[in-house]
Amino acid sequence: MSKEFFEAVKMLEEEKGIPREDIYENISQAVISSLKREYNGKEIVHCEINEEKQKIKVFVRKNVVEEIEDPDTDLTLEQAQQYRKSAKVGKTIDIPIKTKELGRIIAQKAKHSIRQGLRNAERGKAYEEFKSKTQELLTAKVDRIDPMTGNATLDIGKTQTMLPKAEQVPGERLIEGMQIKVYIVDVKETTKGPKIMVSRTHPGLVRRLFEQEVPEIYDGTIEIKSVSREAGSRSKIAVLTKDDAVDPVGACIGPRGQRVSNIVDALGGEKIDIVNYSDDPVEFISASLAPSDVVSVTIIDEEAKTCRAIVPDDQLSLAIGNKGQNVRLAVRLTGWNIDIKPESEA
What we know:
Elements: H1 2-16, H2 20-36, E1 45-50, E2 55-65, E3 74-76, H3 77-80, E4 92-96, H4 103-131, E5 137-145, E6 152-156, E7 159-163, E8 179-190, E9 193-199, H5 203-213, H6 215-218, E10 222-230, E11 234-241, H7 248-253, H8 258-266, E12 271-276, H9 281-288, E13 296-301, E14 306-311, H10 316-320, H11 325-334, E15 337-342
Helix pairs in contact: 2-4, 5-8, 9-11
């Protein structure tokens, strides 16, 4: 029986990917939990599983006493010597429990506990797997969409999660069965398994898409310094390289614009401005207001990070953007408060 048991555990490890040690621990706890009821819940039941010797030992540990105070935990010297001749008062003795004595009811309870333990181990494994992918990009399949809330249920491997309507790209139409890229914002451990919080609107999604699409970013030649985004409408990304032979903006755009085009398609047509990062705030702020030209940038208060940008009169609306979007994204990208003025007013 023991040999078959250990072979079955080995098969479970191979099929489920759960370490044998975890399975043994869950089985031990299940057996102990089932038997404790026979001793009024006292912590005297033990289960030892020895894989090397392929043996399972279940026993109760009792105190050898002169006078019994608790029949569950105590036994007299005379009783103890029936199990071990060398037993002495003041010591403990381990009394083996034969497996067949567990009985059908206890065995069923143990089986249930083992199944529960295996489910817990699988959930723990899934949690660790997804926790390591926090702030990463994963491909998910749209399983169904709630017609009332618009929330989408996604399949990520064998795990399901929800993409709330608020985390979906505005104007994007999800269809059941379609494959989409999602950004893992966070993973929390729950009794029902890992709760994966995903987003299609997070700026991190744009960052990871560029890392996937642009080899120079993936290998570290080009660094993404900052990203600002209004999902479904426009994103700005600032890039930097220390290699003088590399044009960071050109590399991100790609031959004939193919690289950035692939990212725009993955984002459902969202516009993307790619600008050069600079440690010089004047240069960086000027670049951040693309596609508008900038005549000059004046730092007003370095500590408060406020500045004034002067733009040609005919490009004022372009610099500000529709409903202030362009300057709003530039502010988030640079971390500076930008006051835009037309050249004539300046």
